[in-house]
Amino acid sequence: MTYVLTVSIHPELAEISSRKATSLKLNDKLWGRILLINKYKMISAVSTFFLFIILSFTTLLSTASAQAKPARIAIVIDDIGYRETDKHALLLPGAITYSILPHTPYGKALAMEANASHREVLLHIPMEAENGKKLGPGALTSAMNKAEIYASLGESLAEVPFAIGINNHMGSHLTQLVKPMSWTMGFLKQHHLLFLDSKTSPYSKASIIAQKLGVPVKGRHIFLDNQLTESYINKQFQALIEYAQTQNVAIAIAHPHPETIQALQHLIPTLQQQNIELVPLSALYSIPTNNQTRIASGK
User: Fold this and answer.
1) pTM tops 0.70, yes or no
2) Residue 128 has pLDDT above 60, yes or no
């Protein structure tokens, strides 16, 4: 005899069972969506992470590049023109700038030689000092009027027409006076020349007046050879390096003394290992394009 077992499920239980099945299907879909969202979140997080790495690496490269950029210095050898031995200064390596005393026995010839070797040349204009020291030809004094200052500067420039500008020889008194400095800067403005303040006085008004009149101007930072000993010149050269490393630029003035030339022959080649570049003076100025062309051509 065969028995057939028939199980009868209460309608409410069947409905509950059906709901559970539907719920399971819905849960499966929900979990699928959650997993998909998490997947995209993970991809987004990974992308963000790699983007952060790329940006960080780029920043590091930019910083390293900025750090690797060399500091720049200019060295001006002035007081050139009275001694035949001043010619030894032209043998110094690198982009030395030479400042020539006007109307001196050897000034014009040495200026022409420096210009021919593509070195920049300044006029080293004597200016009245507080101690009343004798100034020499081409000097500017507080007794001169505007026309006289223009005439004197014009004669000096005619002797060295390729000069890119002037710096003061002495001048501790004159550079403090508004009118003579205004007239001097007016001449420089008219002839598209720059000014380097030798800073022989802490009270110099030259830079302020030059800026007001739109004349390119910088000031000397270091004197290299106020004392003519090897130890002193070495110490001052180290001070120049340290100044350049902290300020990115530095300007030094030295003179054509045998002791100075001998020391600089050995010191200048050490600049490269300090990540410092020796540049012409004008490279440290913001100069209009037409004036840069004039400087480069020496016209």
Assistant:
1) yes
2) yes
